Amino acid sequence: MNMDELVTRVKNGESHYFTSIVKHYEQKVFTTVIRIVKNHATAEDIVQDSFIKVFYSLHKYKNTGSFNAWLYRIVVNNCFDYLRKHNLQMIHIDSEVINSHYPEKILLLHERNEQLEQLLQQLDEVEYMVILLKYVNELSYDEISEVLQISLNDVRNKLHRSKRKLRSISMKKGGYFYEM
After folding, report:
1. How many domains is the chain partitioned into structurally?
2. Any idea where the RNA polymerase sigma factor 70 region 4 type domain is (predicted)?
């Protein structure tokens, strides 16, 4: 069953199908949220709150736009509401260490993630969100435009400028991301 069918069924009262929607999106939504709020427990709370809002607001979703974009708009708004409420900004997060039998791989992965985070910190919030939504969440330009409520042309420009900025900084500093 595709996502449109699942959404239609939930809207028609078959709420048990909502678990399929959550399972489909929860990992990518969590990745987005943790990269914005930088706290695991807070991210879990925001993800849960976001899915609750999605469920209770599903009747407002008109099948004219992308469900993907509609859902991420709720998620991003929840993140920014949290940051405003707690007077926070998007800040650096250390990458989590993964289980591996090769400590040198862990060290290289950690170093690479730190360099990427340092590069991403050079972007403003909108540039950061465009990169995040495009490359982590794999949203289309149209969906990013809808989520961030900016024009399609602004999405293209922000993405192009962000990549150029990251490439320029990376080339100056060296490191893993010179190929961007």
Report:
1. 2
2. 114-166
With residues binned 3-state (H G I as helix, E B as strand, rest as coil), the percentages for the chain, rounded to 5, are 75, 0, 25
Same domain for 2 and 81?
A: yes
d(CA 176, CA 28): 24
Q: What is the pLDDT along the chain (180 residues), one digit of tens a residue?
A: 888 899 999 999 999 999 999 999 999 999 889 888 888 999 999 999 999 999 999 989 987 778 988 999 999 989 888 888 877 554 433 334 334 444 554 445 545 556 666 677 778 888 888 888 888 778 899 999 988 889 999 999 999 998 888 888 777 765 544 444
**62: alpha, beta or left, given left = phi > 0 and alpha = psi -120 to 50?**
beta
Which range of residues forms the domain containing residue 128? 93-180
pTM of the model: 0.66
Sign of CA dihedral 44, 69, 149, 28: positive
